[in-house]
Amino acid sequence: EDQVTQSPEALRLQEGESSSLNCSYTVSGLRGLFWYRQDPGKGPEFLFTLYSAGEEKEKERLKATLTKKESFLHITAPKPEDSATYLCAVQANDYKLSFGAGTTVTVRA
Amino acid sequence: DSGVTQTPKHLITATGQRVTLRCSPRSGDLSVYWYQQSLDQGLQFLIQYYNGEERAKGNILERFSAQQFPDLHSELNLSSLELGDSALYFCASSVGGAVTDTQYFGPGTRLTVL
């Protein structure tokens, strides 16, 4: 069974304090790994898709990387508006999607 | 605003009842996905439709069913409701069904089963 584990569960950062979120996965044939951002009471918002080990993608203060067993979401010099829950998901060859439980990031000014 | 609409926003019903959740995808999107999000289970993929056909099935209970209509809107039917079915139900849509296609999520329907 496909599994996605995210760590830590929660992360409290000071504004400007860079950090990384981890997503480790086991999947029967990876079609893609996704990162989403979710604000309380709202639907997830797409951030990145990664397809193969070694791939990296960046968007503003966020950078996602992928290895064969895990992905990292690096937040550089975060701002309070980066506070959210960050979700990782994998899509297997049978198109099934599995989500991790998320990492809730709180950035204090 | 993602362009995906879901109705109703909130739904309160009793155990044993049946409800229908509706989703209208973004204009031009052929794929619709349904998800359930509860506090203890996180975000769970239920089912995907692509241009009217079922594409992938996740952890969808037999009491739940879905369909995508010719105009591409989709409905998720939940029957014999139990307390544990209380959750946020999200619909998402994408242009196609490929992994390269970004999924856009709707605002969700909050279902409360009493």
Described by the principal axes of the CA atoms, the overall outline of chain A is globular
Q: End-to-end span of chain A in angstroms? A: 41 Å
Mean pLDDT of chain A: 94
- The computed structural class of chain A is mainly beta
Question: How much strand content do the residues of chain B show?
Answer: over 45%
Largest sheet of chain A: 6 strands, mixed
Distance between the termini of chain B: 31 Å
The mean pLDDT of chain B is 94
Question: Share of helix among residues of chain B?
Answer: under 10%
- Which series of helices and strands of chain A comes N to C? EEEEEEEEEEE
What is the structural class of chain B? mainly beta
Number of helices of chain B: 0
List the uncertain runs of chain A: none
The 3D shape of chain B can be described as globular
Which residues of chain B form runs of ≥5 with pLDDT under 50?
none
Per DSSP E runs of 2 or more residues, the count of β-strands of chain A stands at 11
Rg of chain B, please? Answer: 13 Å
Strand residues, percent of chain A = over 45%
Secondary-structure element pattern of chain B, one letter each:
EEEEEEEEEEE
Report the strand count of chain B.
11
Largest interface: A-B, 23 and 24 residues
Textual characterization of the structure:
The complex is a heterodimer of chains A (109) and B (114). By secondary structure, chain A is mainly beta. Chain A contains no helices and 11 strands. The model of chain A has no long low-confidence stretch (mean pLDDT 94). With 114 residues, chain B is mainly beta. Chain B is built from no helices and 11 strands. In chain B, strand 7 and strand 8 form a beta hairpin. The radius of gyration of chain B is 13 Å and the shape is globular. Chain B starts with a strand and ends with a strand. Chains A and B meet through strand 4, strand 5, strand 9 and strand 10 of A and strand 5, strand 6 and strand 10 of B.
